Known about the structure:
Blueprint: E1 6-11, E2 14-20, E3 25-27, H1 31-37, H2 39-66, E4 75-83, E5 89-97, E6 100-106, E7 111-114, H3 120-128, H4 130-160, E8 166-173, E9 179-188, E10 194-199, E11 202-203, E12 207-209, E13 213-214, E14 220-227, E15 238-243, E16 251-255, E17 269-271
Antiparallel strand pairs: 1-2, 2-3, 4-5, 5-6, 6-7, 8-9, 8-17, 9-14, 10-11, 10-15, 12-14, 13-14, 15-16
Amino acid sequence: GLPEYSCALMLDDVEMYHYDSNSHRIISRIPSVQEAVGKQRIRIYVERLKANHMIVKENMLYMMKRRNISSVHYGQAVYGCEVREDGTRVGQITIAFDGKDFLSFDKNDLRWISAVPEAQTLRRKLDNDRDRNQVWKQDLEYDCPTWIEEFYPYSKSTFERQSRPDVSVSYRRDVGGRALLSCLVTGFYPRPIEVTWTRDGNTVHEVESSGVLPNHDHTFQTVKQMELETGSVGEQGFSCLVEHSSLQGVLEVPWGKINNNNSGLHSNLTRGSVSST
């Protein structure tokens, strides 16, 4: 089944390693990172993650008991830091309960801040553990920035690579009968990208976006979708424009005339083999 506890160490937008309570293993998709950390230090990290698991579980059960709630719930935590160009170090810990903001840590005052009234019970418990809060402060100000300095050299090639996007344009009708043109852009790195729909050279502003989402291989994907007005389904002149640092210019993928079958569910597909302009 699903692990009770899992975590991932991210450096910018790249996963350095992943851990879960089923396997009790640290796994990295970047071989140089796995080799650099070494078996002895991996064992130390695993023991620390096991301890964090117990802390999280204890606090979750404490809060649920005090609030008299049961069944299945989940907590999420973002623990991270940023080292800026001027050397300034900024750290944060934020906690969510069932997907909603719950608590955040003030490392300067060694106290927790409630995002909702329901968090007060757990906030008081955490505030009283001054020794643990001092450890969190140490982690944010020293340990976390040290990890950045440690992992970056071994993953530098991952951050500096350029992966060209694969672009495909497709047509479909959704369950409500809307005629939609979708532009799927995938396999690109780094993350920043501009994807625009145009009609006869003019930008179409009424579009839906999936946002930029991660792929399993350290690249990204995004979908931009637009609704076709009644009467324009069979027309041409629609194009998906893609701008990315891996391209020499703007990649334009045009959509040709759509062939509708009787069911209205037929899709034509135009893939991004068009040269950039």
